[in-house]
Amino acid sequence: MTGGLSVRDLSFHYGQKCALDAVSLDVAPGRFCALLGPNGAGKSTLVSLLTRLLVAPEGDIHIAGHDLRTAPRKALAALGVVFQQPTLDLNLTVRQNLGYFAALHGLPRGEVPGRIDAALGRLDMRARADEKARALNGGHRRRMELARALLHEPKVLLLDEPTVGLDAAARAAITAHVHDLAEQGLCVLWTTHLTDEVRDSDALLVLHRGQILHAGITGEIRGDAPLSDWFLAQTGAAA
Ligand SMILES: Nc1ncnc2c1ncn2[C@@H]1O[C@H](COP(=O)(O)OP(=O)(O)OP(=O)(O)O)[C@@H](O)[C@H]1O
């Protein structure tokens, strides 16, 4: 798959402990794919491998057609990431935080202000550009991290449990924003253990004990059962 995300036979062990066991998955451009897994399923390990914080001895990862093992710079240039833990400098303004990230990515200086305005505009955050990050509530800080992840116009967006710590309204807003981004053509992989963040039309991967138990379209996979009940039955985990 050239434009999206492709993983083949990815395995990873921490010492004797197997965290991922021959995981394969594909996410196409324009797709919102929820990676649903209970605590300890292996979600964070997969995210670490996709972002190259960890390197897998076995398996292949392609991001927008680039092999992460043999062409890591091209692959990572096509990837936007929102990590589970906030990674903002609270003493800088929104614009300064994004500007710092743009410099790290080596974006052409002349393009940076326009890109920042566009990214913030997409998330209804333009009016907050010159406020300190510290002044933003949790939901707006997350939006800012999402805007930052989009600055370099990635083809694939990876979000690791991005709604942790947010209230219900902020959770719904960020979930809706990212679904919109997928509808506009982005390839999205969204890890979560919360079934209410997943729509019937989304692609779904269920990860359990390091293995993909199910892959398909959510509404088709869950049948007539509510997704939370179905997920509980599959994994023994409450959503
Ligand atoms: N550094 C480590 N050393 C040993 N085992 C680890 C380490 N990190 C994770 N594990 C184990 O690997 C498995 C997968 O963990 P991982 O953190 O990837 O799961 P997760 O789905 O992200 O869980 P959570 O939702 O709790 O963050 C678990 O059994 C975990 O205990």
From TrEMBL:
Keywords: ATP-binding, Nodulation, Nucleotide-binding, Transport. Residues 5-234 form the ABC transporter domain. GO terms for molecular function: ATP binding. InterPro entries: AAA+_ATPase (IPR003593), ABC_transporter-like_ATP-bd (IPR003439), ABC_transporter_ATP-binding (IPR050763), ABC_transprt_ATP-bd_su_PQQ (IPR022467), P-loop_NTPase (IPR027417). SMART domains: AAA. It comes from the Bacteria. Signal peptide: none annotated. Belongs to the ABC transporter superfamily. This is ATP-binding cassette domain-containing protein. The lineage of its organism: Bacteria, Pseudomonadati, Pseudomonadota, Alphaproteobacteria, Rhodobacterales.
